């Protein structure tokens, strides 16, 4: 079935017969549709954008017993050959690496019933340790219950460490994951903790999927991009009105530290507000706050369709990530954020 699916992929996308993925390669056909392309900069110099397409299906171990016999700590997302290929790709220098994955990478492990995951090896095992290493061991760091790399945190940690090393070695300025599968769109980021002499690095992900597919549910993702965040992890409901004054950011009015509403009302009290965390590295997050679930400004879930966007401004040396909703003429860009290369 896997090989048949790969052959159909090659036919549908008109893959050249000389491509190692093509069935014309016979016994030498690559197992899996993973591939890469390295594009030059606009001035013709090499090392512009490096597109790395992963195949997280062909060699993926069962994530739970209902998908097949569990492989425990031997569970793999990519298989040995693809892992080695990916490591080699990440050693190729480029300004921006865009890594495509059919399933989400940055949302953390869903913490309910973790012992149902095939890769789970007990409360003191590598499953829990991987989440702890990434600063996501607490149950408050719980992501989507749908399929994601978080179902194999050992493999997710391996992926993020390879990406971190690629940046630290000077082989990339920015790494951006693109993913689908879910029936919503969102922008996520993750600070990969330092290890040894390799510093902390930040990576991003744009998830977009669902043509004529709405998923009007609040889906947890602590790593989702927020306009401004409170110390409870809630997103500020910006702009908000307090005593007749509109605030576009956190304020210290009538309080000893910056605060904001987490729901857009005018009642200072209860659980509708919180103390603001320091502003992030982003100064230009934009959100239409349309077609969203809950108050998360970059969680777009009710648009007729959504698409992800990545734009590199070579003159300004910046990257812009976007969620596009072209069917909504009043808000064709649902959310975006820009940052330096």
Summarize the structure in words.
With 341 residues, the protein is of the alpha+beta class. The protein has helices at residues 2-12, 80-90, 126-133, 153-168, and strands at 35-39, 49-53, 96-101, 174-179, 185-192, 201-207, 240-242, 245-247, 259-261, 273-275, 286-287, 299-300, 307-313, 318-324, 333-340. 38% of the residues are buried.
Label this structure with key terms.
341 residues; alpha+beta; seven-stranded mixed β-sheet; 15 strands; 13% helix
Strand order across the largest sheet: 1-2-3-4-6-5-12
In terms of DSSP E residues, the strand content is: 15-25%
* Helix/strand order: HEEHEHHEEEEEEEEEEEE
Principal-axes shape call: globular
Low-confidence stretches: none
Structural class of the secondary structure composition? alpha+beta
Helix content: 10-25%
The count of DSSP E runs of length 2 or more, i.e. the number of strands, is 15
Distance between the termini: 41 Å
């Amino acid at each position: 079935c896997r090989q048949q699916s790969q052959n159909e992929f090659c036919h549908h996308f008109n893959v050249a017969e000389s491509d190692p993925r093509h069935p014309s390669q016979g016994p030498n056909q690559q197992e899996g549709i993973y591939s890469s392309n390295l594009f030059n900069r606009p001035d013709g110099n090499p090392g512009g954008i490096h597109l790395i397409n992963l195949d997280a299906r062909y060699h993926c171990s069962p994530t739970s017993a209902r998908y097949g016999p569990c492989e425990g700590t031997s569970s793999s997302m990519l298989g040995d050959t693809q892992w080695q290929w990916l490591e080699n790709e990440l050693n190729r220098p480029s300004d921006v690496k865009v890594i495509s994955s059919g399933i989400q990478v940055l949302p953390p492990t869903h913490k309910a019933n973790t012992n149902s995951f095939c890769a789970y090896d007990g409360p003191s095992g590598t499953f829990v340790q991987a989440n702890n290493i990434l600063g996501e061991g607490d149950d408050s760091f719980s992501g989507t219950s749908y399929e994601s790399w978080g179902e194999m945190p050992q493999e997710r940690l391996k992926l993020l460490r390879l990406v971190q090393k690629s940046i630290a070695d000077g082989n990339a300025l920015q790494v951006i994951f693109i993913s689908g599968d879910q029936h919503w769109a969102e922008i996520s980021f993750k600070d990969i903790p330092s290890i040894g002499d390799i510093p902390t690095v930040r990576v991003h992900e744009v998830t977009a999927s669902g043509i004529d597919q709405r998923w009007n549910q609040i889906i947890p993702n602590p790593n989702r991009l927020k306009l401004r965040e409170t110390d409870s992890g809630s997103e500020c409901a910006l702009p908000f009105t307090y005593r007749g004054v509109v605030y576009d950011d956190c304020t210290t009015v009538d309080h000893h530290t910056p605060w904001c509403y987490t729901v857009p009302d005018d009642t200072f009290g209860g659980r509708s507000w919180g103390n603001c965390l320091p502003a992030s590295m982003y100064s230009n997050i934009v959100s239409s706050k349309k077609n969203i679930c809950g108050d998360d400004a970059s969680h777009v879930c009710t648009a007729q369709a959504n698409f992800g966007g990545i734009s590199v401004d070579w003159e300004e040396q910046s990257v812009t990530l976007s969620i596009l909703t072209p069917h909504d003429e009043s808000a064709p860009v649902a959310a975006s954020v820009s940052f330096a290369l």
